[in-house]
Amino acid sequence: QGQLVESGGGLVQAGGSLRLDCAASGRTFSGYAMAWFRQTPGKEREFVSTTDWASSSTDYSDSVKGRFTISRDNAKNAVYLQMNSLKPEDTAVYYCAAGLYSRRASAYNYWGQGTQVTVSS
Question: How far apart are CA 62 and CA 66, in angstroms?
Fold first, then answer.
């Protein structure tokens, strides 16, 4: 069984930057797309970004495009999310996921526990 563990969340001022890391263990995620989603209380999990196995295709939600960058290191079984120009509305719990290349949460069958990102105004 595979596990995903996120790290790098925290408190940052608006306009600042954070990098989220997701480390995979227990199995290789060869061939899997890796993605980031986020969720705030009372709302559905929201797509942020995804990348395919070869990093040849990436996708971003309109709300983060141009500010966030997803990358992965298959040798390290890891995926990253560089977040720049952060806004208070980016405040959420961020989840790493592995599955099929898609914007739909249902396409991903491995999930991390989440890491909190809080952006103060």
Answer: 9
Task: Give the integer Cα–Cα distance in Å for 68 and 72.
Answer: 14
At 45, the amino acid letter reads R
d(CA 70, CA 56): 12
Strand partners, 84: none
Contact 58, 72 (CB under 8 A): no
- 58 beta partners: 51
**Do β-strands 68-73 and 92-99 pair in parallel, antiparallel, or remain unpaired?**
unpaired
Can you give the pLDDT of all 121 residues of the chain as single tens digits?
Answer: 789 999 999 999 999 999 999 999 888 888 999 999 999 999 999 999 999 988 889 999 999 999 999 999 999 999 999 999 999 999 999 999 999 999 999 999 999 999 999 999 9
List residues bridging with 76 in a β-sheet.
none
Q: How far apart are CA 115 and CA 75, in angstroms?
A: 23
Cα separation of 75 and 69, whole Å? 19
